[in-house]
């Protein structure tokens, strides 16, 4: 039978907030062959090494900025990083090597995003709050200063706006700021229609989110100001005895 290194796999979060801990795990099956080393890389830069034959078995290599390895929370399968800024977003790699006689090596990598949340909820602006039937409506929503840019989603009367939403069109764009943060903007355009004004009111919500870590929203309420037909009152018959 042929034995050797199999099943190398990285376990990690898809994203974390800047400043939080990042714990990376690397699973592998040596199939009875001795381990030579575990090495972790950010991009091509090695930052942690575990070699069982050495004393001590762990070695740490400096990373830029405030990020450091917590050795007390790192071993032959896992490594923990602290104080990660957003520029530590990127590819993290685990390299597993077996000892003699096979000297097998496998590398697996995973992309992790370090987010910076917006400091405020999204801001909405509508030119006016009262509309008549079929009058065009334009509403802008802005989510300032985040990394990466937040996703903006529209809801009309609690129903998500999609490409198939009648009378509705959305346009989204992102602008880069000088400090590396990004601002998301989106515009909702629609022809107002009676079905959007149950009870004469329409609620519009703009939701801003980043991965599963951040979600905030703003809401405005628009009113149907269409002319009303005068109510016709039928004459009442008066019965005389």
From TrEMBL:
Signal sequence extent: none
The record, for CDD domains, names: Ig
Q: Does the keyword Disulfide bond apply?
A: yes
* InterPro entries (alphabetical): CD80_C2-set (IPR013162), Ig-like_dom (IPR007110), Ig-like_dom_sf (IPR036179), Ig-like_fold (IPR013783)
Give start and end of each Ig-like domain.
Answer: 1-113, 118-196
Q: Which Pfam families does the record match to this protein?
A: C2-set_2
Q: Which domain of life is it from?
A: Eukaryota
- Keyword field: Disulfide bond
Keyword check for Disulfide bond: yes
Could you tell me what this protein is called?
Ig-like domain-containing protein
């Amino acid at each position: 039978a042929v034995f050797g290194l199999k099943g190398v796999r990285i376990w990690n979060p898809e994203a974390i907030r800047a400043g939080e801990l990042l714990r990376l795990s690397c699973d592998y099956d040596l199939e009875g062959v001795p381990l030579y080393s575990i090495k972790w890389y950010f991009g091509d830069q090695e930052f942690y090494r575990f070699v069982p034959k050495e004393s001590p078995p762990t070695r740490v290599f400096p990373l830029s900025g405030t990020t450091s390895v917590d050795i007390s929370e790192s071993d032959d399968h896992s490594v923990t990083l602290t104080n990660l800024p957003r520029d530590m977003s990127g590819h993290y790699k685990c390299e597993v090597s077996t000892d003699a006689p096979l000297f097998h090596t496998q590398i697996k990598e995973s992309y992790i995003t370090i987010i910076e949340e917006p400091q405020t909820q999204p801001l909405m602006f509508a030119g006016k709050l009262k509309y008549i039937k079929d009058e065009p409506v334009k509403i802008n929503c802005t989510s300032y200063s985040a990394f990466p840019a937040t996703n903006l989603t529209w809801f009309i009367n609690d129903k998500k706006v999609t490409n198939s939403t009648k009378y509705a069109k959305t346009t989204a764009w992102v602008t880069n700021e000088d400090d590396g943060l990004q601002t998301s903007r989106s515009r909702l355009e629609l022809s107002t229609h009676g079905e959007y004004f149950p009870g004469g009111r329409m609620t519009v919500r703009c939701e801003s989110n980043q991965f599963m870590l951040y979600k905030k929203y703003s809401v405005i309420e628009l009113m149907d100001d269409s002319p009303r037909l005068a109510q016709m009152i039928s004459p009442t018959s008066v019965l005389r005895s």
